[in-house]
Amino acid sequence: MDRLLDYIIIALYLIGVTVFGVISGGKQRTVTDYFLGGKTLPWWAVGFSIVASETSTLTFISVPGLAYKSNMHFLQVAFGYLAGRLLVSLVFIPAYYKGNLETAYDFLGRRFGVSLRKFASSVFIVTRVLASGVRLFATAIPVHIITGWDYAACILVIGGFTLVYTYLGGLKAVVAMDVVQLFIYLGGAAAAMYIILTALPGGWSDVVQRATAGGADKFQIFNLEWGGGPMGFLASPYTLLGGLLGGTFLTMASHGTDQLLVQRLLGCVSKRDSQRALMLDACFIVLQFAFFLVLGLCLYAFYNGASLADLGLKSSDEVFPKFIVENLPEGLSGFVIAGVLASAMGSLSSSISSLASSTYLDLFKQSGAGAVVDDARGVRWSRAFTLFWGILLIGGALLFTSTTNPVIELGLKIQSVTYGALLGAFFLGLLPSPLTRVDAYAGFVAALAVMCAVLFLTRIDFTWHTLIGCAACIAAGYASRGARKYISIRPLPNDDSRKGG
């Protein structure tokens, strides 16, 4: 069998990470142990876990492909990510630690009532299922290339092993394995870049020469173009203003309102530890995106600027996997593929755990039946929801097996549709104002409607979606407040106060 050593390394990795994940999770006696790690998670582990969960497979596979087919404009979005994390640390985290919150949507429940908590959680669940399906499919690309298995088989293998340690170990296992998997996939990518540079006759100088040949500048980071008009500007995802604002608002939504990442921040010992974890993540994010974009330029030089069609590829997401399979020596190729698996399993386990926690804590526990469940039964219910969502995510990933779009853009577009409404609702709760549950609902629903119109009726790209949705939610919320106030103070036609004497 060709590349037998690669198969052995991949098999050992899958088995080893599953067993270690189960052991590291320990015993969970309460729901807090299972979903929040007993609120004793070390801040540095949480910080690395956030890095692995958020930018794992999409970064590893899709970002090098973006640089290969264009340039480094995506880094503008990463600068916005840095600003967004700082704002979450200063604004959202202090609000979360004022009360003993269980989930991100517990905040909305305490501010506007349980029904809005359930509604926001339900929106998160739908969005997370779709976005996580994209992430899981992204991992199947390199595994499909190296093994020859079809995408469905790849998804089932990855999902099955991940589900085992997530189901048995809870959040402690998820965070512990994220830390391990982060350094595995970064090490694999670094090894691949080293092989590329040593294979080029001139090394790094060849990368520079190829990236700037013919007057092109693939090292260009800042895009000062305006797209030829207002709609053209909004339809261009990687302008300077669009990247910075889009990255900032997208990060405030993902790190401030998405249970996938907020779950970890709530698992820290204190507010300060939570802020330290997020700042560690912030320090990593720009460097990590820059590294993977440069890796894409190295691949461009290695293939001498060949088009995707010339390489026999359908999508830029397949460029890096192609290099791994065809040019890395046996053994090292298996290690790098293990890195891809590591990134995917970290992201998938986080999605499963966050979906299960939101379902149990925001929906089931708030119902009549869930309110009287004891600790032992609570853990059993939590594991049942974990199993349910794990199976559903694996099935959802199969829906994307025919896509040819860059996976990272597809994933961000899915999230951006609902992120704006969620972020706007949180701002309505944070801002000092006499808004009520009715106003919050009005803002949330209006934002979802606006984003559906933006998605289906305009060419506005994903970097603007969260900002537009957030602004629509806040505007509609305050408009609702103003309308109710006007109606309440406006005299009725038969009101005696309108008559003289």
General description of the model:
The protein has 501 residues and is mainly α. The chain has one domain: Up-down Bundle (Sodium/glucose cotransporter).
List the helices and strands and how they pair.
Blueprint: H1 4-25, H2 31-36, H3 43-55, H4 57-69, H5 75-96, H6 106-112, H7 114-147, H8 151-199, H9 204-211, H10 230-234, H11 240-257, H12 259-266, H13 271-302, H14 319-327, H15 332-364, H16 375-397, H17 407-430, H18 437-457, H19 465-489
Key descriptive features of the protein:
disordered C terminus, mainly alpha, globular, Sodium/glucose cotransporter, 501 residues, single chain
Number of domains: 1
User: What's the average pLDDT?
Assistant: 84
User: What would the CATH topology be?
Assistant: Sodium/glucose cotransporter
Q: Whole-number radius of gyration?
A: 24 Å
Largest sheet properties: none
Sum up the overall morphology in one term: globular
The portion of residues forming beta strands comes to under 5%
* Poorly predicted sequence stretches spanning 5 or more consecutive residues: 495-501
Number of helices: 19
- Assigned CATH class: Mainly Alpha
CATH superfamily: Sodium/glucose cotransporter
Q: How many DSSP-defined strands?
A: 0
Run of helices and strands: HHHHHHHHHHHHHHHHHHH
Percent of residues in helical segments?
over 70%
Structural class: mainly alpha
What's the end-to-end separation, in Å? Answer: 102 Å
Q: Could you say what the CATH architecture is? A: Up-down Bundle
